[in-house]
């Protein structure tokens, strides 16, 4: 009997050790230091203009102004960022809203608490070598299409564009190429024929002549033409139990980002570029300013989610996401976002 109990004790100890090692932390607990919340936010590409509000909020001092300490971590794939959130390694993610819908289909609850934009800010580029052959998504057949990673938002959008042209995923190859320099290398060396990316990569490739724009989803008109409606993308999302357990901390975080979105509305691309880390302008300051000018209109200025946009995201994922399609009728959109914190922030900033 003693040997049996000892064996059980050893097994239980091993299980507990494994749980700790795999990072299954209680996401409802937010660390504190000197009375201030200590938050870690993973960003799906810190240098991407579509996620510019994250670093800009830090540089403007808006986190500190709202009595919270925030550490920003970069991760090129939104799919990887959501994994870090689910395991409790981070308390929030700056990424695409569509992940909250996709995860609900997997019985995981994530909620967007600040919506930065109503459009993706993404651009479908075609390599110089394929420019004559690929004139629309109907020409994707047999081609290699670059996405940040499989299961990422660029993957969802690529499938949507091809799907609306009557193609299925068996008609073309989706290739994981990340973003920035890995995307550029993939396009310039034949790894991909076309691909979806953002500024400043877009500005760099167009200026060099190595790629041309096929579809531009940095504007509302371009997004409606490509996707049949708005497609809210860049956002701040958290686990639902964190939002429920710490509404006061979520409010501080939301207020900080709303202050930044309002600041963007009243400042020039030159002003914004001057606040950002110098290494983000690796391609030159003028090119970086141009990339901000080309994309800055995507930000909505208030942080509010438009129900029309959320519905269009569900419509698209219902057709092109294997997770969402079979569960479309059970998805509760109201559980994937809230405007509560942003509305309070806007009232306080008037």
From TrEMBL:
Chief location bin: periplasm
SsuA/THI5-like domain sequence ranges: 55-265
GO cellular component: periplasmic space
Annotated signal peptide: none
InterPro entries per the UniProt record, alphabetical: SsuA/THI5 (IPR015168)
Compartment list: Periplasm
GO biological process: alkanesulfonate transmembrane transport
Keywords associated with the record: Signal
Family statement drawn from the similarity comment of this UniProt entry: Belongs to the bacterial solute-binding protein SsuA/TauA family.
Protein name as it appears in the record: Nitrate ABC transporter substrate-binding protein
């Amino acid at each position: 009997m003693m040997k049996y109990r000892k064996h059980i004790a050893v097994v239980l100890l091993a299980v507990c050790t494994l749980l700790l090692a795999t990072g299954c932390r209680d996401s409802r607990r937010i660390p504190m230091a000197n009375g201030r919340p200590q938050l870690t936010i993973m960003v799906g590409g810190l240098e991407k203009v579509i996620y510019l509000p994250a670093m800009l909020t830090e540089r403007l001092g808006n986190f500190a102004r709202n009595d919270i300490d925030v550490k920003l971590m970069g991760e090129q794939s939104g799919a990887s960022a959501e994994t870090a959130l689910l395991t409790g390694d981070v308390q929030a993610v700056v990424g695409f809203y569509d992940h909250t819908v996709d995860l609900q289909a997997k019985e995981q609850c994530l909620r967007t608490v600040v919506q930065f934009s109503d459009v993706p800010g993404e651009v479908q580029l075609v390599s110089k070598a394929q420019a004559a052959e690929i004139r629309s998504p109907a020409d994707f057949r047999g081609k290699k299409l670059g996405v940040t990673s499989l299961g990422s938002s660029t993957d969802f959008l690529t499938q949507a564009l091809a799907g609306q042209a009557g193609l299925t995923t068996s008609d073309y190859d989706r290739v994981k190429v990340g973003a920035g320099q890995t995307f550029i290398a993939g396009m310039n060396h034949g790894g991909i024929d076309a691909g979806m990316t953002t500024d400043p990569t877009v500005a760099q490739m167009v200026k060099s002549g190595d790629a041309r724009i096929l579809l531009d989803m940095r504007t509302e008109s371009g997004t409606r033409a490509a996707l049949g409606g708005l497609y809210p993308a860049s956002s701040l999302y958290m686990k639902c139990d964190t939002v429920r357990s710490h509404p006061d901390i979520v409010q501080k975080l939301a207020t900080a980002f709303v202050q930044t979105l309002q600041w963007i509305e009243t400042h020039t691309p030159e002003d914004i570029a001057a606040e950002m880390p110098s290494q983000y302008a690796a391609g030159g300051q003028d090119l970086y300013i141009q990339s901000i000018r080309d994309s800055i209109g995507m930000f909505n200025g208030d942080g509010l989610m438009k129900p029309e946009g959320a519905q269009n995201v569900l419509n698209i994922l219902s057709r092109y996401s294997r997770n969402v399609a079979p569960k479309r009728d059970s998805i509760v959109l109201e559980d994937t976002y809230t405007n509560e914190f942003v509305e309070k922030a806007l009232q306080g900033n008037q």
